[in-house]
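User:
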Amino acid sequence: MDGKGRLLLDELKPPRISNQIRAALADVKIEPMSDEPALSENWGEEGLSAAERLYAWNTLEVLAMSSGSIGKPANAIPGRAQAVLQLRFVVGTRVDKIVDAIRARCTASGFPWSR
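Assistant: Predicted structure:
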């Protein structure tokens, strides 16, 4: 993702939103409950309504991450980090290609993938 929450890998993007889905979401207003955060107007794919971003678009989230050792902190950049990602995806997304695409992107960016 970029700094504005837009998916950078084409493999993570869903198929084009159909006119039928756009019409169904056209009048949907996103109104968070009092204890929920509001959707950011500047976050996510450009050209989509808040309802389209929330209900008709894929989202990749970092659920947890870890690096270094809390038990033995060191004044150095950790040599290892881990993250747990979640892809919330809509119908039509090629989920069979996603892990390989993320792995290739991480490796190409200097973050080798290991299990």
